[in-house]
Specification:
Helix 1 (4-18) crosses helix 4 (90-107), helix 2 (43-56) packs across helix 4 and helix 6 runs antiparallel to helix 7. Strand 6 and strand 7 form a beta hairpin. This protein has 8 helices and 8 strands. A two-stranded parallel ribbon has the order 1-8. The chain is globular and about 55 Å long. The protein has a single domain (4-316), classed as di-copper center containing domain from catechol oxidase. The protein has helices at residues 4-18, 43-56, 69-79, 90-107, 199-206, 211-231, 248-265, 268-271; strands at 33-34, 36-37, 115-116, 163-167, 170-175, 290-291, 300-301, 315-316.
Length: 317
């Protein structure tokens, strides 16, 4: 019962978002949800979260496609991948995407907070992180006995039987694929590229004083390294557009969002609405640009997703 207010909030979050004056200040939230690191969640929260993810695979598409609600998130991400990566909108677009996913989990009975994987804390031994536990996490590595695409199926955990529809933008049914980077000390390559998202690296990223600099180094450094470390070239989390296939994607990107939040909190008065860079077409990005969601949610302006204390988001870390 203690989670009931969260369900009510999530269930109405899109209506609240639609009510935001697009040119003015949005309403403020008064009771923000607190997002949790996976290893710090209760057993009930973890099992409820996993069950809700599975539930998404039983629901029809929200956007009128011949696939499941689970696949909506993959299809949308893959279809507009180049428009929301390596551009200014990368961080706010994914913040909105995560909020839509969180609301969908609520429709499947998950009443707790969104979760994140703190891969900075686990960077010295990523494969031993709690999120990869077969009993209390998302399962571990895929089958490594073959180099043929589609054979590196996750062997344990709650998603070992998960069947997926898309690979990049193609319909290419397959199991959940993971190929952990084993590390090559002789080439100074650490396990799962952990050195690329270590506390020292994040300190350098956090030292950036502008949104454009921070977003660039976060996306192209730690963010990409985690994708590659978990998926490599043939795994679902690899550096390709259908990475939301892996349920771990959402914990990974919630961590990315957390790091942006922490950077904003270093100087809220100057960083909350600090935004800049370029759109996909090379023109200058602004807070009044729209974030495309292809029907998964209404297209909304960047400025609506800069402040997590706004009523349409209403969370903290």
């Amino acid at each position: 019962m203690k989670f009931l207010p969260v369900l009510v909030l999530l269930g109405t979050s899109l209506d609240v978002a639609l009510a935001i004056p697009q040119g003015g200040a949005p309403p403020r939230c008064t009771t923000p949800r607190v997002r949790k690191e996976w290893s710090r969640a209760t057993a009930f929260e973890r099992s409820s979260y996993v069950n809700a993810v599975k539930c998404l695979t039983t629901k029809p598409s929200k956007i009128g496609k011949n696939h499941r609600l689970y696949d909506d998130f993959v299809w949308v991400h893959a279809t507009i991948f180049q428009h929301v990566h390596n551009v200014a909108a990368f961080l706010p677009w994914h913040r909105y995407f995560l909020a839509l996913y969180e609301a969908s989990l609520a429709t499947c009975g998950y009443l707790g907070p969104a979760m994140y994987w703190d891969w900075v804390a686990d960077s010295s031994a990523p494969s031993r992180a709690a999120v990869f536990s077969p009993t209390t996490g998302f399962g571990g590595n895929g089958n490594q006995t073959s180099n043929q695409w589609g054979t590196n199926c996750v062997l344990d955990g709650p998603f070992k039987t998960l069947q997926l529809r898309y690979w990049n933008e193609e319909v290419r049914p397959h199991c959940l694929l993971r190929i952990f980077e084993p590390g090559h000390p002789e080439f100074n390559i650490t396990e799962m590229y952990g050195d690329n998202y270590s506390p020292a690296v994040m300190a350098q990223v956090n030292a950036e004083t502008t949104f454009q600099g921070f977003a660039h180094f976060l996306e192209n450094g730690p963010h990409t390294a985690v994708h590659s470390g978990v998926g490599n070239l043939g795994g679902d989390m690899g550096p390709q557009s259908s990475s939301p296939n892996d349920p771990l994607f959402f914990l990974h990107h919630t961590q990315v969002d957390r790091l942006w939040y922490l950077w904003q909190r270093q100087s809220p008065s100057t960083r909350t609405f600090d935004y800049g860079g370029f759109r996909f077409d090379g023109s200058a990005a602004t807070l009044d640009d729209y974030l495309p969601m292809l029907g998964l949610g209404p297209d909304m302006k960047v400025r609506s997703f800069m402040d997590v204390n706004a009523a349409n988001l209403c969370y903290k870390y």
